[in-house]
Amino acid sequence: MIFRLLLRDFIMRPILTGLILVSMNGYAADDYERQQIEQRIAPIGQVRIQGETTAPAVAQPVQPAPAETAKKEPGQEIYEKYCQTCHRDGVAGAPKFRAEAEWKSRLAKGIDGLTTSAIKGLNAMPPKGTCSECTDADIKAAVEYMVPKS
């Protein structure tokens, strides 16, 4: 009889309490994850079909900041979007942006030679870097933008 009381009060009760708490915690985590997923996939706007008479309630377009409207140098946009990932920090031996010491030996090829290397790929750099849709003129403009100004 005493053994049953001990078993029930001191062994089984804490085990059952623990199981209940663990299962409740799992439910709370599942609920939290579900809420996070719903939040991530919630629609952020509405589609407006041309010719539709009633326009959906949509926020007005945001005006770009003055810094964004500043005229960029030719090749700057390509560099910022595709090239800076490696050339900003010198990843895998890539010459850093406008670092004269790193470009010095490469400049012997001239802009056309550097452009050809960039188009065909060189060492760790794949052909056209990461910009497969860039034209040869885009690549040349990016190369001219990256090399040191002298």
UniProtKB/TrEMBL annotation:
- Membrane-spanning ranges: none
Source taxon at top rank: Bacteria
Task: Answer yes or no on keyword Electron transport.
Answer: yes
List the Gene Ontology MF annotations in alphabetical order. electron transfer activity; heme binding; iron ion binding
Q: Where is each Cytochrome c domain found? A: 70-150
The entry's keywords: Electron transport, Heme, Iron, Metal-binding, Transport
The record, for InterPro entries, names:
Cyt_c-like_dom, Cyt_c-like_dom_sf, Cyt_CIE
Asked if the record carries the keyword Heme, the reply is yes
- Sorted alphabetically, which PANTHER family does this protein's record hold? CYTOCHROME-RELATED, PTHR40942
Spell out the protein name for this chain.
Cytochrome c5 family protein
To which species is this protein native?
Answer: Legionella septentrionalis
